[in-house]
């Protein structure tokens, strides 16, 4: 635990260096964090941004689409939040909602779902061509771990109001979410915008390794490589075999 | 002249029908109007929207990009103005500025210019795939016609303030603009998002024929086809030969 | 008629001078145009802005308040549209909706209505103290004139779609609107933000006189005073007696 | 220390109750947190919002005014962030910048400064009349405490980038800031929108007492009064005598 705190602190110092470098070079970074309910998205994002400059850092967690959003190009509502020069933007959930919660909960039609997969690769390609460094992380937990986290939340007066109706159905819909996740990874992983998967049953290990992976994938001045060796039992680039090896939860 | 007014009125009634149909069907339309300074963009747009419902109609004429705009994805500042369901949006100038005024005046780098041509086709494809009906019109006038219009403006106390520094150089840069136009048409015309060229020396003919062309290219209830025969001496889909036949001004 | 065109043109040249002066001095102007349905608000505003610089001119016609608007400070949704330095802003309808259509149609509560009158004077005072030049015009027509205009609209295929359900009840609610207007004028007229009333049965006279009044109330370079004598049978500063003298329609 | 954690946790449970009540009743709350650099504004705000619902909670820390902001009504840029029904908004610094940093650093003119004091009371009155519950807190630290905090920041690699040029002059300008604070409190404290002062040399005591004061000043269901006794050595409503009693630092 002290170990965790020390490592986290060292990594956060690296993040500060990274940001300083990116601001100076006017680079732009977009990190997408996906994962089921209670997978730990909020927690890792909190550690990522904790010591960064608020002016150049933005965490984007859009609510459900408005009526007007639904009347426009699916990606449109995300576009104003894309990073400008020097900005570090994190999407807590993203356009991949269409392939996850919208698919499972029936919030989009079959046709919209299929169209999403046709459009997501060219869309991301375009952002990357425009100079955005895109990183896509998927936090994966087991069914029993999710259940335990929900139970803990329910008992915590500081957290129980956070449980949404959608959360309540997450366990029931477990298999559907697994299937949707598999489809999403299969159809939106590619060399230009690859997915990185994180075993997230252990929160601390997940946070540490996501940050290591992010840092080691980007160039910046004063990088301390020795700190950045990620644990391949926790984090790996997506591979189709993952479903069989158990790296992805059933 | 009375003839013009009558025809225009009849076409505007068609536009009202078109809009009513599009609102009911939740269709979306985006019309791009391009052309040199003084080509008559404002005039034709005024007639297009004159009797349409303001709530569902939007004319977008963005000023020069802000510092923040320049720090983002080139297309980003246009995205919030794209049509939602039922909306009729007209861009008075557009992302094609990069291939025209920005190229000629040196407002963008060679690399940005080249990148624009790589990205514009996939970008437009994406909008079309998302259900937007895109129409691209280029108003083309002769060098002497432009000069005359500038002179008329200068003498008109209600118009002379409109003359911008960029306008003042339009005649001097005539050949550069012709060249930029040729490149733009050659590299951004395709079957999915074709350019339509309008000989615009005669303002009234240009207006009438653009509206006819737009109406006949779209489906709507109660369409009066007899009204919509455009004059091929005035308006034609872009063809590479146009430069040689004189349909495009030198 | 030719007379009208000539005078209008001369006044529009004055408006261009006014704007040029205001842009140079970084002054700010806000014109509120109120009046019943079909009183001619759109028409006069069109002539006001016809030859002004679009970049520094803004016509604001807000739709009905959104759910979020209704959850905020009543004036909040208008604030982003207030003029910045050098800007000329015209509100086509305004916060006075609360004292007019919202009152008559029952879109606000009695309490909200009363609160509006408590707040409108300090709010306008604040804007004026901050350097905004505020002008408030009320276009007043007779009941029969309104009816005729509605009939004309219904027969015009280019205008009939504009007739809203609220318009349709305007004749039935005539007396209620008269009463609401009287209350509004009585309770929101003061020396700092006075109302100016325009007899608007004659559209051309209304337009000419509103523009004259506006111009003569503001200082600008090169002002041609001779042009600006308004007709006191058409336009007058609000006075309580107006209801009795028939200057305000019953 | 464990004590602190326990009390804080208990108070945060109260904050959750408060928010639930406010959401249900559609109440609106605006908390202004002011104080010199390093007074601990960020820290207390972090504890306030830690467990609140992000959708209904907003922390607003505006950067320096843009050129456009400076061309508008001084309060204008704050208005879009005011709370809607059910929202809990915290301003980390606020319009009082004009009376503090802008005054001391010379970012506004004498006339703007004086005008601010004329306008701030009616402006706040208006917000309160519109149903916003406004609370204004001023965190006050000693000169030596500020210096120590700056030194600690400089030595911390996770914090040193946060030190702005304005911070660097805070010690030099100490007396000017004290004077500006005194003027601000004297001229903007009133019964409708009173200031509450917090001795903030001890961070934990400051946080605990601010939260207690806020909670006890608002009505909500299930309030645990026993928890909310604030310490009058730490927190008091502003009184002119405070400057002499040493409650406000010299
Ligand atoms: N520095 C610049 N960088 C990019 N585009 C610019 C720049 N300055 C002007 N433009 C664009 O050039 C176009 C022509 O400008 P101008 O002749 O002033 O306006 P208009 O023809 O629309 O009245 C406009 O679309 C404007 O946005
Ligand atoms: N439910 C509502 N609540 C408040 N205002 C409304 C409501 N419905 C319409 N209005 C307002 O009433 C005014 C008149 O409506 P309408 O006649 O439809 O529009 P217009 O006269 O602007 O064409 C508009 O300013 C509109 O915003
Ligand atoms: N030129 C300026 N004009 C007005 N306000 C300014 C200006 N520069 C900075 N400020 C304001 O001064 C305050 C203090 O600035 P700074 O110490 O840099 O930020 P912070 O204390 O919020 O980290 C901020 O609210 C900022 O908006
Ligand atoms: N009706 C809906 N349509 C689309 N997305 C939704 C809808 N309702 C909720 N969501 C999304 O589902 C995700 C999980 O919701 P929640 O658990 O309520 O935070 C969020 O990203 C929501 O934006």
UniProtKB/TrEMBL annotation, chains A, B, C, D:
InterPro entries: P-loop_NTPase, Polyphosphate_phosphotransfera, PPK2-related, PPK2_PA0141
Alphabetized SUPFAM superfamilies for the sequence: P-loop containing nucleoside triphosphate hydrolases
Gene3D superfamilies from the UniProt entry: P-loop containing nucleotide triphosphate hydrolases
Keyword field: Kinase, Transferase
GO biological-process terms attached to the record: phosphorus metabolic process
GO MF term set: polyphosphate kinase activity
Domain Polyphosphate kinase-2-related: 2-224
EC number of this enzyme: 2.7.4.-
Main EC class the enzyme belongs to: transferase
Subunit structure: Homotetramer.
Summary of the function given for this chain in its UniProt record: Uses inorganic polyphosphate (polyP) as a donor to convert GDP to GTP or ADP to ATP.
Family: Belongs to the polyphosphate kinase 2 (PPK2) family. Class I subfamily.
Protein name listed in UniProt: ADP/GDP-polyphosphate phosphotransferase
Species of provenance: Zhongshania antarctica
């Amino acid at each position: 635990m002290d170990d965790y705190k020390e490592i986290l602190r060292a990594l956060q110092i690296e993040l500060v260096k990274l940001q300083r470098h990116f601001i100076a070079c006017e680079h732009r970074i977009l990190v997408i964090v996906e994962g089921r309910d209670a997978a730990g998205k909020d927690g890792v994002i909190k550690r990522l941004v904790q010591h960064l400059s608020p002016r150049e850092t933005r965490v984007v967690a859009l609510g459900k689409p408005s009526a007007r959003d639904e009347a426009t190009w699916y990606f449109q509502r995300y576009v104003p939040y894309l990073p400008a020069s020097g900005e570090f933007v994190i999407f807590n959930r993203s356009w991949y909602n269409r392939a996850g919660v919208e698919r499972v909960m029936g919030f989009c039609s079959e046709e919209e779902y299929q169209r999403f997969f046709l459009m997501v690769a060219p869309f991301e390609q375009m952002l990357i061509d425009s100079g955005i460094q895109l990183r896509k992380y998927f936090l994966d937990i087991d069914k029993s771990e999710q259940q335990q986290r929900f139970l803990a939340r329910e008992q915590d007066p500081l957290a129980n109001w956070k449980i949404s109706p959608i959360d309540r159905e997450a366990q029931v819909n477990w298999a559907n979410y697994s299937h949707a996740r598999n489809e999403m990874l299969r159809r939106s992983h590619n060399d230009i915008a690859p997915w990185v998967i994180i075993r997230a049953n252990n929160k601390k290990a997940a946070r540490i390794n996501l940050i290591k992976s992010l840092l080691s994938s980007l160039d910046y001045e004063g990088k301390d490589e020795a700190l950045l060796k990620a644990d391949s039992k926790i984090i790996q680039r997506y591979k189709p075999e993952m479903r069989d090896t158990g790296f992805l939860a059933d």
